[in-house]
Structures are given as C-alpha cells and as structure tokens.
Give the backbone structure.
Amino acid sequence: MLDNEECIHGRRRSVDVGGLALALENQGLGHGWGGWEEDEQGETRYAELLSDMYNHTQTTVNHHVNDLSPIMIPAPTRARLITSLDSWHFEPHNLPEDEVLFCTLILFESLFRIEHMHEDIGVSLDDISVFLKHLRLLYCRHNSYHNFQHALDVLQAAQTFLCAAGVVPPVSILLESNDRTWRSDKSGKESRLAFDLNNTCLFALFIAAIGHDVGHPGLTNMFMKNAKAPLSTMYDDKSALERMHYALLVQAMRHHCLGKLLDRPDSGQRFRKVLAGIVLATDMCIHYDFMRDFGSLVAGREYSLPQRQLLLCQAIIKCADISNPSRPPSVSQYWASALMVEWTSQASLEKHWHVPSSVTPSDCPITHVRGQIFFISKFAKPLMDLVAQAVPEMECFAHHCTENLAMWEARQENMTSPSAGQFPSSRVVVPSPRPPEDYLTSFPLTLPPFVLTPDEPHASDEWHSRYPHSDSSSSSDVSSDIHVEHPAILQSTSPPASPVPSVGSCYSLAPRSSSSSLASNANDAAQTMRAAYSASVRKKKSFYHRRSWNATASSGSSPIISTYPPLLATIPKAALLVAETTASDGTTITSVTAMVASPAGENGRGRKVP
C-alpha cells in the first residue's frame, strides 16, 4: 500500500533500489541496454542507474515548477514577432529572453490554426503555454549553442520547412481573424510524402523540436563516453544525451496536461514512439543510418504509413537541427561561432579533468573555415539535397546551403593565396572557457563519477568566467566582450551566453568552495555508509549518488541552499525521505531518512534508518 503522502500525489515518492535489483535477477533484463554482465553485481549496478535516472529526472523537472500562469504577449510585440517568424533571416539570439519565449508560443498558436488540430491533440494552448515556460527553465543558460535560443531556432526552421511544403500555415495567419482555421491544399499533390503527416505527427514534431536538447550540459556524447559518465554507461554509449532529452521532455509534458497524449489507450504508445524517434534522430552518430533509410524511401522502397511518417519527421528535425549552413551568411556564421565557443569550453574541461580529448576547436581562422567546409560538404548539404528530393519545396534551402559552402570555399582560397600571408597569424578571439563549477550544475548523470570526490583536480588559473549571471533582457547585452577580431572570418558578433535561466540558475550544489570541503563531505559520507552497513544495508556502494540538483530561489534572487547532507554520496536519493523545516532565524534544517532494502523475509518492505 501507499502511505498517505504517496496516495495524495498518486505515485510513489521513492524507489527501492534493492527491490529493482531483485526484480531484475535471473530475468535476462537490462543486458542489451546497459551492457551488463550476467551476474548479481551487474544487475545491481544497472538497477541503481535506473533508479538514479528516474529519480534525477523527477527531481529536475519537479523543482522547476514555479510560475504556472499562461504567457501573456503584448499586442505590438506580438505583431512584430509574427512577422519576424515568417522570415528565414530569423535571429533568436538577438531577442530579449521574454520574446524568445513569446516566439515559441506563437509558433504553436499558428499550428493550432490547422483544422481539427485542437480536437486531435486534446490539450489547450494555455497548457502548452505553461509547459513552454517550464521547459525553458530546463535549458542551460551557460551554453553558447545548446540553449533555449537554439531550440527556438530549430522549431522555427521546422515550421518554415513544413510551411513551404504546404503542410502548416504561415505564422502570419495569426494576424487574421481569430476564428479562421486552415486546411492544406493538396490539389494535384496528393501523393506527396509531406501530406502523409497527420495532426498528431505535426504536434509531435513541434514538441520534439522545442525540447530536443532540454537539459543539455554543453558536453558531447563522446565526452561522456570517455569520462565514463553514468548516463553514457547506462545507455551503453548509445545516444545517451538524446535519451536524457527525451526522458526530461516526457516528464515535463506530464506536468502540464500533455501526458494524456502519452497514455491514450489507442494512440499513446504510437505517439511516444514517434516522439522518441524524432528526438533520437538528432544524434549525429546515427546520421548515416538515417541517410541510408531515407535514401531507400526516396528511391521507391515500400514502407508502411507509420514508417514513412516517422522518417519524414526525422528528416525535418535533422534539417532544422543543422539548418544554420542554409541560413543567410550572417546568421550561419553566428551559430558556427557559437558552437566553437562551446567546444572550446569542453576541450578545456577535458584537459582540466584529464579526460581524453574528443573535440579540437582552434583559434586559427583557416582551421575554422576548413571545419565549416567539411561539415557542410559531408553532412548538411547531402542531407538537404536528399530531403529536397522527397520534399521539392525544400530545394531553395538546399540551394542556400550550396551558396554558403561556396562562400566558405572562396574564403579558404583567399586565405591560402600568396597575397594573404597575414592570415595564418590571425586568431579568432573567443571568450575564456567556462569554469568547471558551471558544469557542476548539469544533469548529474552526465558528469564523471570522480567529479565530487577528493580526487577532483584543482581548478587551474586558466579558468575565468565570461558568462556572467546577467539579468539583461537581451542576448547582445550579456557578454559584449565576445567578438571575432578578424573581419575576414566572421563579421557578426560571436555568441554570448544564453540569458535564459538555466538549470544552473535554479539549482546549486552544497559546499564546493574548496577541495577540503569536498574531502570533508566524502569522509562524512563514508561514516554514514559504515553506519548503514551496521544496520544491515545492502553492502554495495551506489554507483553514482554523489550529487543532485537542488532547488533554489527563482532566477535573479539569491540562492537559498536546499541541499541534502553528505548522505547522498552513498545512498540513492530514490531511497531517501527528505523533510525540511525553517528555524526562527531563517535557517533551513534538512532531515533525511534512508529507506534501505530489507533482508529476505521482511515482506519486501524497506526499513528506515534515521
């Protein structure tokens, strides 16, 4: 039975990790997913990771539920943004953070002008509005590329592609009568692949576009693999980030009445499969697999309707996710610079934590240009050209991509010509890398297990943050010192940090100001674990429970530390019951009760160890 609190919330508040391990015993479960050996230790470790993933996902999403009121857009602002969203020269990084959020809602409003969309989906725009406010807080503001502006950029690109194909209306439909609905004109084009998409597919694609990078730590899958991050281990080094994005996205949906789409008896499983398939398609490691499958579709191979729908949705989000090379040159160059900044920070972090190098950013202009030529010629252009064969209206975007490739090639030729001898000594000036402590606010399972142990390397003097926690209303005001000195490389301003409140701005860690405090926490944790051992706790140290995201005050205010004691270093948070009280002096007092696995014969219930 559930206790009173569990009954009120309708779900369990804790997970018995030992019970998960027992449930997996001799069942042959989990081995393909986590890659565990068939022994008790492997199954226990897998169960612990499952518990961690479930628990951190719940905690991450739950702690960001603050303002539940719908988004209100001022009329003059609304009209201006509608016009800008219909332009391929759209630049979300130059918008104030509130207007970035407004744009996401406006795009969903235009989608809901499609005939029968509201009836087919069964959720209101108010529900979507609150969901979008919540989702924005789950994106990391420290990231120069994988932030909420990028999510909007991908959503707007997807909407533009679909509008060109005649599948969704232009955003400008919102300037017309509020009661006007829209229906696609299929005259003479009934056999077009784009018209295989129904309203549910379109909605799933919009949700995936805005949530496809939620919780992104600013690190790559290869970094997590090399660092042996628990998230990568749990997913057997396969699309670990993308699976995390999907988990967070689904949990956020369930908070705001969008969960009904996931659980409908007749279509919920299909919706989840489509949503997951779209998000996972953004992993570039499976790019060539997609190109093979979509190429066979274009070549005439027979696929079922659900397969065609999923392949097309994947094609649209892949084109949108790497649409920067098809944007106008100034926009394309901005995003290229933004990604370089993020990779530079990762490279410095790899050096700092002694993790094998997985990215090689360079401040050499010619290297940067060659990198753009390689990416466009090997990935972006072939993708755009292939999708344009299935969706002819996307040919213009493939043409833009070809033009940008020619621009980069001409730039390379100019830089390597005898008359350009000064270029090799020029350098692209990028901001100093993010300090390691910025990454400590990332989703916990994305970080190496050693990060919060006494073995963590000391911060080096090379780390100087250029990502201030600014309350500025515009991206361009956040970090004006980020620029590119050489006009021959980038004429546009290099990317500042995202001004959107991040998981980092809403979560903080318990004392981490020095190595001595980390060591003290670890010693306290060891003592706690020994005490738990004497109370008959299962004698298997948790694989990764060294830290968690902790709620603080809303963005812009002084953080109120609400942190679990060092017990978290060894006991799964899923097995903790946490109670907080406030003393008369305002101090927050946290009490923790550990729920530990019972020895056999105690009815399978956990025992409490205070």
